Amino acid sequence: xxxxxxxxxxxxxxxxxxxxxxxxxxxxxxxxxxxxxxxxxxxxxxxxxxxxxxxxxxxxxxxxxxxxxxxxxxxxxxxxxxxxxxxxxxxxxxxxxxxxxxxxxxxxxxxxxxxxxxxxxxxxxxxxxxxxxxxxxxxxxxxxxxxxxxxxxxxxxxxxxxxxxxxxxxxxxxxxxxxxxxxxxxxxxxxxxxxxxxxxxxxxxxxxxxxxxxxxxxxxxxxxxxxxxxxxxxxxxxxxxxxxxxxxxxxxxxxxxxxxxxxxxxxxxxxxxxxxxxxxxxxxxxxxxxxxxxxxxxxxxxxxxxxxxxxxxxxxxxxxxxxxxxxxxxxxxxxxxxxxxxxxxxxxxxxxxxxxxxxxxxxxxxxxxxxxxxxxxxxxxxxxxxxxxxxxxxxxxxxxxxxxxxxxxxxxxxxxxxxxxxxxxxxxxxxxxxxxxxxxxxxxxxxxxxxxxxxxxxxxxxxxxxxxxxxxxxxxxxxxxxxxxxxxxxxxxxxxxxxxxxxxxxxxxxxxxxxxxxxxxxxxxxxxxxxxxxxxxxxxxxxxxxxxxxxxxxxxxxxxxxxxxxxxxxxxxxxxxxxxx
Length: 581
Description:
The protein is an alpha/beta fold. The protein folds into three domains: 21-34 and 246-480, Rossmann fold; 38-224, Rossmann fold; 484-580, ANL, C-terminal domain (GMP Synthetase, Chain A, domain 3). It has 18 helices and 25 strands.
């Protein structure tokens, strides 16, 4: 019997080489059956951490017990509007205390959360509301003017208008009151009367009014199971029409437990295990990275989330963090880079910072080195997508040196590298990264054709990213299929070029794209933002000549004051290609 078990173990380790590289204390599998639904997880968290602060924003703290109570009130109000279990409710706001209340309310009432980027144009908002079939929306009044332009073309019948000061009014601090009054003046005009026309059954109510009405109502507990839909998480639209990744309750529960299992051994190194860990939530909660890594994981583990409504205001961001001991800092490369370059950032307290987790885009070596020098905490890169809730791979958290990989498949996750015909490739060969695990979505919302394009018969999800797995199980991304540049028959991968150029001391950030070329089919064009004003084109040409083989070298170089980015901070190569074509 022992020999048989040993043989099984050997075969498993060959099939899953990453297991031998796992950090001590991280399990190969996680058990998602401990919760029947995501609501069960939240209910337990609200009871277990009731007396702890869950979030702080604009100087105001909110305990888990307050999120518990307020979300029941808002959820009861939504139920009283006649919404049925499974109806979709959108949220359109930046990181504010109201966001956590709204998420918990929608889920606990049995509805589906549709996260919406508050900076969407009317066209983008109309598409998402119509595609999801949202029946209600919680929107910050600053963005209600956009909603008012498209609401008649959607199924939205119930609007909850939030204000920056909704959950701050009871605190009479003069600074907060001044800030709220100032922000109210900045609210663009919106056509409230068009959102509440008589005879169409549409209701419009202020956030605090909905809470007050809900206080007199009873939240009816829905019958929820692991296969009920929890979120429609829309992709950024970078590969075509924005699609809703259908994330089930079990998908989100699984990813929370997977990330917790990966983080726990590192957090256990802190001397005081009774302390509350503080998490910086600067990435927007409407994005899957912050949704899971900040709000959901924070609820499960009882973390305090520092909510940052506007992370692009770097001086204001730094001031928000002042006075806090930070333990976990999730961010994308551009945010790590911007903060590390700001002189005042180095004066913050990083003495207990143990996890700086990077994702959303490739972390550049130059950025990682600057961050480590400033904070003393290495950036640990991970990888995921909206379709995988999001985490699929993470590097060991105890690594000190940047390794350029996206890490190892996390617990209960399998990675296969496949060719265009769906065949598994040997270790070391490049192909499409495919993911199988309990965090993988059920499919794209009402798009069976799109779902069929990415889901394999054996349960693997095709990411569209080109990667390589080494003999230890570490995965390295080469690039997106669509971003690959074909120069005279040679494949050129923009990420490789960007990694090299970003190491030049005069470069702040850069992006490489392919442009048409009569001689070679395509040529590499490089867009550069300088950190040294004296940097000249010939300097980069000489540098690239020394660093890269001829066909990889940029044929064209354009300096810019800034590069186009998504609201998460990801550089948008597609816009650079479009504007260059």
